[in-house]
Each structure stands twice: as C-alpha cells, then as structure tokens.
Amino acid sequence: MTTEPFSPTLTIGPRVRKSPFFDATVRAGARAFTVYNHMYLPTGYSDPVSEYWSIVNEVSLWDVACERQVEITGPDALAFTQLLTPRDVSACLVDRCRYVVLTDEAGGIVNDAILLRLAEDHFWLSPGDSDVVLWAQGVAARSGMAVRVGEPDVSPLQLQGPKAPHVARKLFGDVAIDMGYFHMRQLELDGIPLVLSRTGWSGELGYELFLREGSRGVELWDKCMAAGAEFDIKPAAPSTIRSIEGAILSYGSDITRADNPWTVGLGRLVDVDKECDYIGKTALQKIAANGTSRRLVGVDIDGEPLAGNDAFWEVLAGGRVVGRVSRCVYSPRLEKNIGLVNVSVDCADVGERLTIETPGGLRGATVVPIPWITSETKIPEGI
Questions:
Q1: CATH H-level, domain 22-63+155-243: superfamily
Q2: CA-CA-CA-CA torsion for 321, 324, 328, 334, nearest 10 degrees?
Q3: Does domain 70-150 have CATH number 3.30.70.1400?
Q4: Residue 173: how many other CB atoms lie within 10 Å
Q5: What is the pLDDT of residues 175-190, one digit of tens each?
Q6: What predicted TM-score, i.e. pTM, was given to this entire model?
Q7: DSSP string for residues in 176-224
Q8: Distance of CA 12 to the CA centre of its chain
C-alpha cells in the first residue's frame, strides 16, 4: 500500500516573502507551495512524476528565488570567506563557482552552498534553507575584518534538463554552450542584469539565472518560457525523485547541524590543514583523524511504491534503532523505492540489511552504492 504524506493547505500572507517570479508561477499553474528560507517556494504544478519526466527528458524552469544570496564584499572578502568554510577557495578564479560547506566550531554543517566569485573582493554564497546571512553577519561583527555581509537583490531561476543548453543558447548565444561546468558569466538579457552559471540541483544539464533586479522577475520568466516553447519547456518544482537518484543532498533533511562533512559524504570539501584559520578547524582535524560515527548511505526499500516521507522514519538493525530515513521516494525510472538514511557506521556497508519503520508498517531495505544515477555535466557536441 502506498503511504501518502499529509499535505495541509498553506495560507498565503504578507509575513512570508513572495519571489519576483511569484505572480508568473501562479499564472503558470503552481498549485502547491512551501515556505523555504522565509519565502514561498512552488512545490508542484502538475504531479511529481510528470514534472520528473520533463526534467530528465526535456527542459524545465524552476522558481528558486528562496535561495537567498549572502553577499561578501570588501578588502578582506577572501579572508573572511576562507574563515567561513573549510574548503580552500583561494584558487577560485573570478567568474567561477565552487561547492562548499560552512561549518560551526564543533565541525557541524551550518549549510552547504554554491560559492560564486564575481570579483577579487566580491563573493556570493547561494545556500539552502537556513539563516546563513545572519550567521555570517555575526561572524563578521566579531572578526575584526574589513568586510561587508548582506543580502543583495538577487533571485535565481533554474533552467534544468537535457534541452536546457538549447534554451540557454537561444537566450544568451554561444556563451551558454562554451561555459564550463561550475563556470559563470555576468551579462544582460535585453537589459535585464544577470549572472548565468552552469550549476543546478537536478542532476541533469542546467543553468542558474541569478536575476539582479527583482522588479523584472516576471519579464525574465516570460522570456525563458518563450525561448523554451519549441523545446516543450514546462514549469516545475525541484524534483525530490531526481535529487535522490543523484544523491544530491537537501539541507534540513539529508544534512543537519548535527552532521559533519564526512557523515554526509562531503569530506572532499574539507581541506583539513589549509594554512589559514577557519571555523571548526580543530574539531574537523580531530574528526578527520578519528573518523565519524555515522554515515549517510543509500538504500533500496522493499515493497509497494512509497510517496515519500514527511518525517524522519526510524531505521532498525537487529531490533535496535540505528538511524533515520532522511528522504525516500519511488523512482519511476529505476522502478523501485530508494532513499537516503543516516545510520551508525557499523550498519553502513553495502549489502547490509536494515528495517525501516514506515507509517504503513515495517519495510526491509538494503544498503546500496550511491548515486543511483550520476549527474550530467558535459554539454554534448553539436548543440
């Protein structure tokens, strides 16, 4: 039996911010929203499976303006950015991006984010759902550095799917095709100021369009939809199905403040012994030496299709609770239930059998390698 999550009605009011694309998304048929980072985020236009196929087969447009940017400027911008993350970003060139984690003094993850470098002394952090700007401003206030931290008038759209390069080329010309993965360009589209980056959260080819003038949000949305019409573009929400298939992590679910980078498979983003100081350095050096007690791993889950989890379901081994399900879903492409679980390391080896306590009863599960489907990063020749 399919376990359907409870979906309450969300009341729209002035306390929560609307994105510059909000009116366009409503006009496009958005029928469900959630509150993400103090802003309304569309979570559905049709149904999750239809939107999933649009993302993996064609092209889709997402309002992700809730990814509020954290802007870092000033003479000490690089030194301050280095303080926030254990990854050494000193070699990140202007007009390049990096994936980073931000850590606290205990080595816990405050957030994961895309770092964009707009100038030698100008950075953006594009994080998930948390008050990163307040945390960064607090660090800045006590740092003694010549740095300014704030939230700029920047709102991203994501253009995602295998036909995204076709749409991007129609909008921006060859620059969109020539850009490397995790590269970015500062440009205009018919006078609309943007940053275009080869990044995204879909696991498919894609771009983020960072609008730098919020009053022109509907205009930008309409231009993207018009350019994508011949490629069957559809409005969509970030896909839980595709993100889990690609083991693309979601902050607040797969990553929490209780996790260190190695717990969630992001140890590659930690340059433990980088020369400059960073928050959590001592703790992370200790964890690197001693190992972590928990790991986020993938599981195939037995039984009928699951609609997903609206709570952290318990994971058991040998009759004892050993962890929790962070996210799970039925993959129509793989034709099975898959999920990410945070469990003790003694239960994290591939092939380990676990039990998941769902609202509909116990389900067996097997630890498997992740990702199930790797991310697409290379634009094919001839586009």
A1: Probable tRNA modification gtpase trme; domain 1 (3.30.1360.120)
A2: -60
A3: yes
A4: 11
A5: 999 999 999 999 999 9
A6: 0.96
A7: HHHPPTTBEEEEEETTEEEEEES--SSSSSEEEEEES-GGGHHHHHHHH
A8: 24
